[in-house]
């Protein structure tokens, strides 16, 4: 008995067992007969639908197998005709699956044979085309058409033709390679590049790509004879420069290592050797001048650094007019050395003073940087505790600058008494040097203050014109009266409680609310009967120059607001 039949019987038994269990469950539950019939009908429909779906799938499989067999038979017949083989014979007792498998296996084998023949034909065609291009002959004509599968005999004939062309190519190629090597050696000796297109093809193109026709071989022989003649003419021109070079080596005391670097050119007579000898001769002529130029340029770089270290002014630097001279001679080198020696002596004699001035200048630059940060309005947002640190650093730095100025002034005065003249910093004495920095700093601050004032004036004019004042919202609610005040804002008419007046239009009130508050210093929502105090007029939105000033001004404004709120509360609640 087949295993499938056993499984089928087990399936029927499982189905009967499941139905019996359902029956027992229904009896135990006490389901009425009508519901049992419905449930049994549902089980039957489910099983029937499942079996029908499985039957449909198997029928589709059978249909696909038949379609596949028909397709494979047609494809197999086509392959047999292309490969000139006998038709494929099927076994009568085979099942559909076995027939489909056999057909596909046979198709796969024949497809491999077809691919192999086509690939072999393609390779032979490529070889034939390459050989024809090299030998300048016509292509092989006894080959099948492009899409036709060749027979085994046709492929064998093609192979014999390729072998014949390959032997002919190898013979001509050997002769070409020998001529090419001699031509390249002559051109290298003459330092000559290929001039004509034919010469470029000979030298640069691949050996297999060169057309090995009989005419090209003859042209190669003629080219080689011309190059050998020019090589002989170039051999006698190298000895003239050698004696002159040896004389200059001895005169300039050139070391043996540099002489050995030119040893190859001193022994050979190629064109590049001649050019190298001529170049060496020119180099030796300019060697002395180059050495002087390098020394002067190096001294000038060092002089520029000492000018900065000694704080020389532009006029003092320009006094050495030979600094920009391009006449590099021994006299100019001696003058530069003397000037550099004076600068070094000056720095060594007063290095402590110069270093102290440099320290003061670096501290001043840091102070200006902190001052710039202190006037930046954005420092009050996302400050992370840096404001107090920066303020402390700025205060300490200012004290350090003051102490350093006093110390330097004492040292400068002592030097003046000792030397009998002023110690100049960029053309000024130290006091003028410091005052110039402070004057420039104050001028810059006044300019920035004027710019802020003009910007604020323009903003105020725009606010008065358009009635839109942008204010920064406060984080803390200011104290004020909680009940309406009897005193009205400027520009509004007071009315008795018994006769409420017509309220102003909302649009006009909203447009003028900020302008009234900005011009009169009063709140629009409530009224204040007390006059504005000087502290009241301090603007919180103004940018304080330091953190401490900002804190003091904020404290004054907060106290003023608290007092005003308390008075308003008393006046509105008698």
Automatic annotation (TrEMBL):
GO terms for biological process: mitotic spindle midzone assembly. Residues 493-507 have a biased composition (Low complexity). Residues 267-294, 387-463 form a coiled coil. GO terms for molecular function: microtubule binding. The keyword Hydrolase does not apply. The keyword Coiled coil applies. GO terms for cellular component: cytoplasm; mitotic spindle midzone. It comes from the Eukaryota. Pfam families: MAP65_ASE1 (PF03999). This is Protein regulator of cytokinesis 1.
């Amino acid at each position: 008995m087949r295993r499938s039949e056993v499984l089928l019987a087990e399936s029927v038994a499982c189905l009967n067992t499941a139905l019996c269990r359902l029956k027992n469950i229904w009896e135990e539950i006490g389901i009425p007969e009508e519901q049992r019939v419905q449930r049994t009908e549902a089980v039957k429909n489910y099983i029937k639908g499942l079996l029908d779906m499985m039957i449909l799938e198997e029928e589709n499989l059978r249909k696909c197998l038949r379609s596949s067999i028909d397709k494979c038979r047609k494809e197999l017949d086509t392959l047999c005709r292309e490969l000139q083989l006998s038709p494929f014979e099927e076994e009568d007792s085979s099942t559909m699956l076995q027939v489909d498998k056999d057909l596909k296996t046979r198709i796969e084998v024949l497809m491999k044979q077809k691919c192999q023949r086509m690939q072999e034909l393609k390779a032979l065609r490529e070889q034939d085309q390459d050989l024809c291009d090299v030998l300048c002959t016509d292509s092989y004509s006894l080959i099948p058409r492009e899409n036709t599968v060749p027979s085994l005999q046709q492929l064998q004939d093609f192979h014999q033709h390729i072998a014949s062309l390959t032997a002919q190519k190898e013979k001509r190629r050997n002769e070409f390679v020998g001529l090419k090597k001699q031509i390249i050696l002559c051109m290298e000796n003459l330092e000559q590049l290929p001039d004509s297109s034919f010469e470029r093809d000979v030298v640069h193109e691949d050996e297999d790509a060169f057309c090995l026709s009989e005419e090209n071989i003859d042209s190669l022989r003629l080219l080689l004879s011309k190059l050998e003649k020019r090589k002989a003419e170039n051999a006698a021109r190298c000895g003239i420069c050698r004696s002159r070079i040896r004389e200059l080596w001895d005169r300039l005391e050139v070391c043996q290592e540099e002489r050995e670097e030119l040893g190859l050119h001193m022994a050979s007579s190629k064109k590049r050797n001649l050019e190298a000898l001529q170049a060496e001769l020119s180099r030796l002529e300019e060697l002395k001048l180059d050495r002087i130029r390098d020394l002067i340029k190096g001294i000038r770089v060092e002089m520029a650094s000492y000018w900065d270290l000694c704080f020389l002014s532009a006029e003092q630097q320009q006094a050495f007019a030979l600094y920009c001279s391009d006449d590099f001679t021994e006299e100019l080198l001696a003058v530069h050395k003397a000037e550099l020696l004076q600068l070094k002596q000056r720095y060594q004699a007063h290095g402590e003073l110069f270093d102290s001035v440099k320290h003061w200048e670096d501290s001043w630059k840091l102070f200006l940087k902190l001052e710039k940060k202190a006037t930046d309005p954005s420092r009050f947002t996302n400050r992370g505790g840096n404001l107090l640190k920066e303020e402390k650093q700025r205060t300490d730095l200012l004290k350090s600058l003051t102490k350093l100025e006093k110390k330097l002034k004492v040292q400068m005065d002592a030097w003046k008494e000792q030397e009998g003249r002023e110690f100049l910093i960029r053309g000024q004495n130290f006091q003028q040097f410091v005052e110039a920095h402070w004057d420039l700093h104050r001028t810059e601050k006044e300019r920035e203050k004027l710019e802020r004032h003009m910007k604020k004036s323009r903003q105020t004019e725009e606010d008065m014109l358009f009635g839109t004042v942008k204010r920064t919202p406060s984080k803390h609610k200011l104290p004020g009266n909680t009940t309406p005040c009897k005193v009205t804002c400027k520009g509004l008419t007071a009315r008795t409680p018994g006769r409420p007046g017509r309220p102003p239009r909302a649009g006009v009130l909203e447009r003028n609310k900020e302008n009234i508050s900005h011009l009169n210093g009063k709140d629009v929502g409530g009224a204040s009967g007390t006059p504005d105090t000087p502290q009241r007029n301090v603007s919180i939105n103004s940018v304080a120059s330091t953190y401490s000033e900002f804190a003091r001004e904020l404290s004054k404004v907060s106290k003023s607001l608290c007092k005003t709120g308390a008075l308003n509360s008393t006046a509105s609640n008698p």
